[in-house]
Automatic annotation (TrEMBL):
SUPFAM superfamilies: HAD-like (SSF56784). InterPro entries: HAD-like_hydrolase_sf, HAD-like_sf, HAD_2, HAD_sf, PGP-like_dom2. PANTHER family: PHOSPHOGLYCOLATE PHOSPHATASE. GO terms for cellular component: cytosol. It comes from the Archaea. This is HAD hydrolase-like protein. Keywords: Hydrolase. GO terms for molecular function: phosphoglycolate phosphatase activity. One of its GO terms (biological process) is DNA repair.
Length: 227
C-alpha cells in the first residue's frame, strides 16, 4: 500500500479568496482588528498559526489571542462555509487527472493541510476534489505542521491498516514547511513549485523529488513506484 498526503493551497488549488476574506472577517468580529493575512508570510502555516502571527504583529497580547482562539476558529469556519459557494477556486493543472489515476490504482490518498478540517473539506467539495481523500491531518488538529503528518499517519494505520514501517508514505507540498514536516516523520517528500517557492528552495529544504507542477503525471508515478 502506498499513502500520499497532499497539501491543498498552491498544491492542489491556486488560492481561495473566500478563505482570505474569512480571516479578515473573523479578525474584525472576534478581536475588532481591521487586518489581513497578507501582512505575514502565511505559506505553509496552519490556520491557528496564521491567526496568532497576524494578531501578534498587530500588537495583541498572546494570552488574549489564545483565550479567544476557539471562538475565532468557529467564526472563521462558519463564514467560510456560508460563503464558499461564491468562491472562484482554480484547480491547478493536471491535478484532477493525477488524482483520478492514483485512485484507480488503489493508492490511499490523504490531506496534510494547515486549513481547519471543516474549511479544507468545504473548499475541496466546492471543486469536487473532496471525494478522493479518505483521511488527513488538519490545522484543527494542531498548531504545528509536523504533528499534522503524524496525526494523518496514525489515522491511516487505524482506519486502513497502513504500516509506515513496511509501506511508503509521501508528503506532497509547495513549501519548505511541507517538506520539513514530512522529513520529521520520515516520509518521502515531493515538492511542487506551484507556490511562491522555487524548485531550488524545495530541494534545499530536503525534498526527495521536485516537480514544477502535478501535470507531470508520468514522472510523479515513476517516482512513487521507485520507492
Ligand atoms: Mg501550500
Amino acid at each position: 500500500m502506498i499513502l500520499l498526503l497532499f497539501d491543498i493551497d498552491k498544491t492542489l488549488i491556486d488560492r481561495s479568496e473566500c478563505h482570505h476574506r474569512a480571516f479578515s472577517h473573523a479578525f474584525q468580529e472576534v478581536f475588532q482588528v481591521n487586518t489581513d493575512i497578507d501582512i505575514i508570510n502565511y505559506h505553509g502555516k496552519t490556520d491557528p498559526q496564521i491567526t496568532c502571527e497576524v494578531l501578534k504583529k498587530e500588537g495583541l497580547d498572546e494570552n488574549l489571542i489564545k483565550k479567544k482562539l476557539d471562538e475565532f476558529k468557529e467564526i472563521l469556519s462558519s463564514y467560510f462555509i456560508l460563503n464558499v459557494k461564491d468562491d472562484h477556486i482554480m484547480v491547478l493543472e493536471g491535478v484532477r487527472d493525477l488524482l483520478t489515476e492514483l485512485e484507480s490504482q488503489g493508492i490511499l490518498l490523504g490531506l496534510i493541510t494547515g486549513n481547519l478540517e471543516s474549511i479544507a473539506r468545504a473548499k475541496l467539495k466546492q471543486v469536487d476534489l473532496d471525494k478522493y481523500f479518505k483521511l488527513g491531518g488538519f490545522g484543527s488538529d494542531n498548531y504545528h505542521r509536523p504533528y499534522l503528518v503524524s496525526t494523518a499517519l496514525k489515522r491511516a494505520s487505524r482506519k486502513y491498516n497502513f504500516s509506515p514501517d513496511n509501506s511508503p508514505a509521501f508528503v506532497i507540498g509547495d513549501t519548505p514547511r511541507d517538506i520539513k514536516a514530512g522529513l520529521e516523520n520520515k516520509t518521502g517528500t515531493i515538492g511542487v513549485s506551484t507556490g511562491i517557492y522555487s524548485p531550488r528552495e524545495l530541494k534545499d529544504a530536503g525534498a526527495d523529488f521536485v516537480l514544477e507542477s502535478l501535470q507531470y503525471k508520468k514522472e510523479f508515478m515513476g517516482f512513487i513506484k521507485s520507492r
